[in-house]
């Protein structure tokens, strides 16, 4: 399937079992009903599954995305691209280089994190389909998170790259998502605002 990148970035749910207070499959299904436009399988951090268990859950979440025509991304782990038949992968500055991935996977959607001018200078943006910009706001969700960049970072990226697909990430919820879009992002990537919500469909509609 071919995807419209600007469109898929609008409401981008990221999640692994470590983020889920209940069954990840149920959370994903509710999020899809609520209107997410992309999903990233990020099994990472304290309590995350590994090995066969990680693959087993990945296969289930992948199947749910396929059945609902939601693009499915892998976080970091390029070995899972083929195993889970992912539509794309998101990598950071310390992960497998994006240009290498592009050569290996010419048809997959590749996202790269950029959080500072220094990271921007060392990034080959021609190899990627979109960038993840953050943390826009403070977040507890990721341990090794970088300093907060604010919506100003998105404004800066947008001014420098008028056509670059950008998704904001970090501490985004239905109260502050508007600021991220107004700063120039195509969409918002969220974990806890959705996984910890007691009314997931409403939360996503509000985003
Ligand atoms: C859409 C999106 N944007 C940014 C990130 C963060 O990626 P990274 O910096 O590699 O950190 P980890 O997620 O791997 O801990 C992301 N995953 N998705
Ligand atoms: C995975 C991740 N990457 C970030 C970055 O800034 O690159 S912030 C983050 C965690 C996002 O979780 P929440 O929506 O709960 O704040
Ligand atoms: Mg990474």
From TrEMBL:
NCBIfam families: thiE (TIGR00693). Signal peptide: none annotated. GO terms for biological process: thiamine biosynthetic process; thiamine diphosphate biosynthetic process. 2-[(2R,5Z)-2-carboxy-4-methylthiazol-5(2H)-ylidene]ethyl phosphate binds at residues 139-141, 171, 191-192. Mg(2+) binds at residues 76, 95. This is Thiamine-phosphate synthase. InterPro entries: Aldolase_TIM (IPR013785), ThiamineP_synth_sf (IPR036206), ThiamineP_synth_TenI (IPR022998), TMP_synthase (IPR034291). One of its GO terms (molecular function) is magnesium ion binding. Residues 12-194 form the Thiamine phosphate synthase/TenI domain. HAMAP family: TMP_synthase (MF_00097). Condenses 4-methyl-5-(beta-hydroxyethyl)thiazole monophosphate (THZ-P) and 2-methyl-4-amino-5-hydroxymethyl pyrimidine pyrophosphate (HMP-PP) to form thiamine monophosphate (TMP). One of its GO terms (cellular component) is cytoplasm. It catalyses: 2-(2-carboxy-4-methylthiazol-5-yl)ethyl phosphate + 4-amino-2-methyl-5-(diphosphooxymethyl)pyrimidine + 2 H(+) = thiamine phosphate + CO2 + diphosphate; 4-methyl-5-(2-phosphooxyethyl)-thiazole + 4-amino-2-methyl-5-(diphosphooxymethyl)pyrimidine + H(+) = thiamine phosphate + diphosphate; 2-[(2R,5Z)-2-carboxy-4-methylthiazol-5(2H)-ylidene]ethyl phosphate + 4-amino-2-methyl-5-(diphosphooxymethyl)pyrimidine + 2 H(+) = thiamine phosphate + CO2 + diphosphate. It is an enzyme of class 2 (transferase). Belongs to the thiamine-phosphate synthase family.
